[in-house]
Amino acid sequence: MFIVIAILIFGALIAIHEFGHFIAAKKLGVKVNEFAIGMGPKILSKQRGETLYAWRLFPIGGACVMEGEDENTPDPRAFTAKPRWKRAIILVMGAAFNFAAGFIIVLVLALCLKSGQVGAPTLAGVYEGSAYTDVLQSGDKIYSVDRHRVYYERDFAMFVNLAEMRKDDTIDLVIVRNGEKVQLPNFALEKREFQLVNGNTAMLYGIAFNDMQMNFGQKLNYALYDTYNNVRQVWLGLEMLITGGAKMSDLSGPVGIVSIISEAGSYSEPNADGVLVKVPLSERVKYVMSIAALIAINLAVVNLLPIPALDGGRVFALIVTFFLEKILRRKVNPKYEGYVHAAGLVLLLGLTAVIMVSDIVKVVHH
User: What is the pLDDT of residues 9-35, one digit of tens each?
Assistant: First the structure.
């Protein structure tokens, strides 16, 4: 069931992206030849006015085909015939719709939160026997980890986990104590064995955080924060790819995303006896929706990168051709820009194919 849901979520997010282009194009007077949900052969289609509306077989994409996207055409309502600012708005609206969809999902999830489900960045205390009993104390507020701001307990956990992935033994920690910032450079990461309530033991840092009381205002703040944090995670991932902190095998495409959502939908946790049991369905649905929000925001951010064939690359091309035309004193033929985007698309499709093969191998081995 969750595999089907995952495919539908992925397809819906791409359809929402194309719908953003479609609405903007219609509002700004650009002729739309076809708006399709899905890819592949048409299942249903209807011509309404100048636009063909189609439902295609595979629910993993969509298309908004505008007149004269990459070529000169005599039609005054062609995409290339419109002023640059209109074309830029049409291009960015796909990402804007994805971003809005991600925020709406995050907001709904935040409104479902109860007091005690979100950890504050302030310490409730330090476990006896922890390596930090003489360094940290109750009431300390974690301000930043490795120059990244910490807003909630989950931020601290995320940046410490990133440090562990880099195999770093220390972090640069900044705390707020009695209203003043305290710098703790080269803060050692040291886990020790602690006994849990159920009698089992685990390797922990031995730091306890306060729980937050979630009223409506705090839930709204959390939704804004979570949206920002999703953007931050995308940028951190891109930074790790560039610096070598992550490998190409760490990337996931449609197959990997469907697999991740499916696993979240069947997520299990050990009970008091150590036996794995599935978490309640409502919680699994929340896991799936939180991943959907991350994917929606990921699509928005990545699509705005200045890479040929992506919306950001097209906006960048608008800027470049503007200056070229000022220098050359003549209009640049849109077909040349089309060649660049076509080449970029081929490279992106090649990368997608490589990632898809990697995803399939990971799923099979899993």
Answer: 888 888 899 999 999 999 999 999 999
Chain centroid to CA 15: 16
Output the CA–CA distances (angstroms, integers) from residue 96 to 11, 23, 212, 215, 316, in the order listed: 17, 12, 31, 28, 17
Full residue range of the structural domain in which residue 277 is found: 1-115+217-366
Structure token pair of residue 328: 């050359």
pLDDT at 17: 92
**List of E strands, 189-248:** 192-195, 201-204, 207-211
Distance (Å, whole) CA 357 – CA 365: 12
18 is catalytic: yes
Question: Which stretches does DSSP call E strand in 312-364?
Answer: none
| CB environment 319-335: b (16+ within 10 A), e (fewer) | eebeeeeeeeeeeeebe
Low pLDDT (below 50) residues in the chain = none
Is the same domain home to 329 and 206? no
What is the pTM (predicted TM-score) of this model? 0.84
Judgement on whether residues 110 and 232 belong to the same structural domain of the protein: yes
pLDDT value of residue 271: 63
341 and 281 in a single domain? The answer is yes
Which residues share a beta bridge with 181?
176
Same domain, 100 and 245: yes
Query: DSSP strand E in 89-164: where?
Result: 119-126, 141-145, 148-149
Catalytic residue among 18, 69, 153, 337: 18
- Does 154 share its domain with 282? no
Using one digit for the tens of pLDDT, what is the confidence trace for 277-311? Answer: 777 777 788 888 888 898 899 989 999 999 888 89
